[in-house]
Design goal:
Layout lengths: L1 H15 L4 E14 L4 E6 L3 E5 L4 E7 L4 E2 L2 H11 L7 E8 L9 E13 L2 E5 L2 E7 L2 E11 L18 E12 L3
Antiparallel strand pairs: 1-2, 1-3, 1-11, 2-5, 3-4, 4-6, 6-7, 7-8, 7-9, 9-10, 10-11
Length: 181
């Protein structure tokens, strides 16, 4: 429900600036936890994102339950024990691109976005970096960043602490097209 309300608010603001809004039409966020005991790999292709080129604002909503694992047991533990996805259904990033860009000019640009990431009930100021490619009126964003479990109060039981990395590398790929109301 919170996700729907959040997206409605974003879309309401989109109405005002519809000319400069890009919506993610396909994207994927993934992570890989590597330890000497076990590797954990998960992917989520159900992300929602908008970029407002007029204000340089960017928003991501990632439904936690949509991460898919090779093992159903890993997926169950991830949702029930670690991320508590019934209680905290989404990870949300809201920020603003720091660099001045000409969104009408094709090219590949190194970008950072200062903002807030909310996950597992914790909000944290973050500044992820990535590459934004502008080509023929579309945008593509590639980003890699790390998530420290302790920063978001994600507790790993001592029994399995050796199975899960304390800092998880995350990769994001998002393709955008102009938003049409």
């Amino acid at each position: 429900m919170k996700r729907i309300i959040f997206l409605v608010l974003v879309l309401a603001s989109v109405h005002v600036y519809a000319q400069g809004i890009f919506k993610c039409n396909e994207g994927e966020i993934s992570f890989f936890s590597e330890t000497s005991v076990e590797n954990i790999d998960a992917r989520n292709k159900n992300i929602s994102s908008f970029i407002n080129t007029s204000t340089k604002e960017v928003v991501f909503v990632v439904p936690i339950r949509n991460f898919k694992f090779k093992s159903s047991l890993m997926e169950e533990h991830f949702n029930e024990k670690y991320l508590e996805s019934d209680k905290y259904p989404d990870a949300i990033f809201q920020g603003k691109i720091n660099e001045d860009l000409d969104f009408a000019k094709d090219g590949e640009y190194k970008v950072t976005a200062a903002g807030t990431m909310k996950m597992h009930g914790v909000e944290k100021a973050v500044t992820p970096s990535g590459t934004l490619t502008i080509k023929n009126g579309t945008l593509a964003l590639k980003c890699e960043f790390n998530v420290a479990l302790k920063d978001y109060n994600i507790i790993v039981p001592k029994l399995v602490v050796a199975n899960i990395a304390e800092v998880i590398p995350v990769k994001l790929n998002a393709n955008y097209v102009p938003y049409k109301k």
